[in-house]
Amino acid sequence: HSKSVSARSAAHRVIVHVDLDCFYAQVEMIRNPELRDKPLGVQQKYIVVTCNYEARKLGVKKLMSVKDAKEKCPQLILVNGEDLTPYREMSYKVTELLGEFCPLVERLGFDENFVDVTEIVEERVNQLQQSGCSRVCVFGHVYNNQAINLHDTTHLRLVVGSQIAGEFREAIYARLGLTGCAGVASNKLLSKLVSGTFKPNQQTVLLPESCQDLIRSLDRIQKVPGIGYKTTKRLETLGVRNMCDLQAFPSAMLEKELGVSIAKRIQKLSYGEDDSPVTPSGPPQSFSDEDSFKKCSSEVEVKKKIQELLPNLLDRIYKDGRQPHTVRLTIRQFSPADKWFNRESRQCPIPPHLIQKFGKESTNIISPLVDILMKLFRKMIDVDLPFHLTLLSVCFSNLKDLPSSKKGSIGFYLKQMSPPSGSGK
DNA sequence: TGGGGTTAT
DNA sequence: ATAACCC
Predict the structure, then answer these.
(1) Which of A48, A138, A242, A306 is 20 to 30 A from A3, alpha carbon to alpha carbon?
(2) Given strand A389-400, what is the order of strands in its sheet?
């Protein structure tokens, strides 16, 4: 049965994009309900990274400086959101909840998920046809207010997709207390673009006849997910400024400027075509922790910062249960003109005798790790010369499951479930 | 402009 | 190891 679905052309997929409303602010309002009806911002360093809708009504925007935000809105309440632990935990609860409906769930950041509901839709459409039930209703908005033709099986399937999206949002609200938007369409690109069309706590389905309207509604090329800052700059030098320009641009010239792979991909995106699959995210590929600051200019300070980053990280890795085999140190050096883009990193394998210690408490793994990280630091920075760092980040990656013999006798008998990831507990 | 993440080269 | 992308 699953073969019949995957063998069918990609045009028949039904994809749901779920996008939580101002996620960090919602989590903070759940942690402290008194903040519910007040304008609330979440602060990291001197930036308001997100805010609730009360604050938005009063003119606060995402990524506004604290100074500007307070000027706009003196009553604004700010909570510090530099520790992502509460958001990360809630984020994985959402992904796990969606995973109860369907195995194909892909995370995008902490507050978005793609779900390929093609199979669920298939089952429901079959049931509907057998029971001869024709009372099928769309849930939420239809993009462009386009008329639905339920005799068109593509329409029918997307309408059923909208009902499933509604069930997702209801479950997320009932069980986790979170609101969000959803978009339903035939691929990831379109589902993501359409999910934002009605904004807080609403959902929208895109029917194929309105695809070009959705695409052409994008005023800037960078609004296409997958076309970022760099590609936009290069397209601008070619005179490509909007979707129509990109659609019409000669493929051969595009391929010469951007390379065949990127050119083909983004030109397809410009038509609303995206055959990339929903790839289940599973547990995280890496764990990192970083801190930014005005200035760090001595080895002693660097060591102190690293020692501050490690305990939290080690705790997360311990709870995850897997062992990292690679460690990386990333720095950002101060440079007045540059676009804050100048990060460099060094990584190395973790010595096997240290890997063993990740499972256990009480053994001191911190000191040897700090030593390794300081060696990596010296590979980047000549400590005899002056330096000025503005960020330090430690990342553990190349995560591997414990050898099964180490998992304790009971581990041998436990059913190997796909880990719903290293979130909770 | 934070504090995270991913994949491709 | 970096560079691009995403939030």
Answers:
(1) A138
(2) A286-296, A389-400, A323-333, A343-349
